[in-house]
Structure formats: structure tokens, C-alpha cells
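Lab channel / #folding
Pinned by the channel admin:
"Please post every new chain as: sequence first, then the C-alpha cells as a reply. Keep commentary short and put observations after the output so the thread stays searchable."

First post following the new format, from NK:
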Amino acid sequence: MPFSSWVSILTLVMASGGSTESPSVLRQRVDMMELNHFVDENGREVFQQVIFYDWSKRDRQFHVRAWRLIKSDQQLPVRSWDPPMYQCEWSDSGLVKQVTAPSMRETWTQEDPERKNRRILSEDRRIPLFSD
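Reply from TO:
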């Protein structure tokens, strides 16, 4: 390897505080993700959110586990082909959080699906996505 490559690597290591380790990754799986575009009465997008669901066999419907506002395109769900799944990833307090699901839907609504789901299962009864 040329000397200039070694210098570049050493510079990167020093800039990162001497650590070459990647941040810890917390992984979780859900039954479905929803990319929701909340729109106003004129059809203009107000915000985007991703909602994570698990299927309730007892209630025979999806229950929300958690949701997140999308603040950048890097947080949008991405389709993976091998293995086939959808993945959403973001950084939170020095940790990378990654959620996968076998299916995803995309919706445009004027009623927040996460809030609507609270009528079925209140927030305090939800299964946390990640333990704090």
C-alpha cells in the first residue's frame, strides 16, 4: 500500500478519536412498516413518518409499536432483496437503531394513522421497540 494511503488511514483514525470501531447497532424486527405522508386539506405534505407495526393474532389487526418522524432521506425505509425485507435505520445517542420488516405500505392521509391506532391499543400498552 502506498505511503499516502497509510497517511490517509492514520488521519481518519486520529480524527475519530483513535477508534476504528463502528457504533453499536440495535436491531429489531416488526411485522410491517408504514411510510406515512401526512397532508393538509390542500394535499400539501406536512410531515413524513415511519410507523412500526406487529400483527395481533387476538385482535386480528396491526398494532403500532412505535413511530418516528422522518428528518432526512437517509431515514426512509429501504428495500433489500437478499434477504427480501424493508429496513429503516437512524442514529440515536451514539447508537445505530435498525428495524426490519417483511412488508411495507406507503400512505397519504389527513388523519394520523398512529393516533388512530391509539383507539385500538393505548400507548402505555404498546410493546416498546427498543428497551431504554
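NK: Confidence is low (pLDDT under 50) at residues 3-20.
TO: also worth noting, Helices lie at 3-15, 113-117.
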